[in-house]
Amino acid sequence: MTAPCKKTHVVPLSSDVVVVGGGFIGCSVAYQLAKRGVAVTLIEQEHIAWGASGRNAGQVSPAAGYTDAFLPFTVANFAMLHAMETELDADFQFRHSGGMEIVTEPEAIADLAAGAAALRQAGWHADVLDGDAARRRVPALGPRVLAARYVAESGHLMPMQLAYAFARAARQHGAHICTGTTVTGITTDTRGVCSIHTDGGTISTRIVVNATNGWAAEIAAMVGLTLPIQPQRGQILVTAPVPPLLPMTFGFWAERAVHYWRQTPHGSIVIGGGRAYDEPGIGSYSRQNSHDILRRFPAHVADTMPVLATLPVVRTWAGTMGFTPDYGPLIGPCAAVPGFFIAAGFNGNGTPWSCIAGVIVARMICGEADDLPWERVAPDRFAGG
Asked: Is the pLDDT reported for residue 283 higher than 80?
């Protein structure tokens, strides 16, 4: 059982912007605003990175996602990560390792090729390898692997460390970080948002950023909006450490769901996925693993990498993600409620948006120019919610 979250800061009476949600998206937004001189307060009902941000496998790639429409954002995010450890003065163990998506069915090879072509068009390096070529690059791959898409610009990191780095840097620039604090309501007037209420007090503000991902619909309802964001559970297994075996990250589709795994710098294999094993709404907010995960995850990984079949699982956990109808996030202002912004619905791919989402929101709020196609992530693309 998790201990009650202690309030770490008295909420201020007023703030230019209030960010709700202490995952790496919310912390990224708070950091980008604070370094621009904006008075920002971040409200988190538990601890920093206590939701999906601290409960995922930490893989990051411009190829992440379910559609190529968002490549301009994920490509920009990956490029930012190279400089972010220096900018934040933090080691979140970013490794530019490359990554493979592997397939065992002939009909899946065409999809791999199409994805590789889209990445190359965006200026990145992506190749489709046959099974033998893939095994030459990664000997751990088994004989059932027919093909693989190799993306050089992929990697992995420790997501909780990234979230804490954003939060620490935001605080250093003057942001208030209030954990153990629950939002209880948002008040609007004829001009839009005017205050946000918490169990620690009321904050006068004209801008609220809803960065709660799987909980975003609940916060939006406080201002009368209906968001098409559905919470779904992602699950993780961690094995005992082994000597270096996996030089890159891996993804594999099976049973209508993606499975993914990587080896951490200290040797453990982190395996994630599993959202298709829950019916919508069933177990969405649970942080426990479903009963069949210990059977399904190792079976699918062993199907492609038999050498991993006997590794003991030493830790398991789960976290809640937010999914949208078109598998794209909602980032930006809501026209129906002036001053109400959203940065949520990352469809299990929050890490590949962790840096760029904060930049997008900060530029919008501060009126800065940007050449990214914001309309692709605009919340108002779902007319009437």
From this structure: no
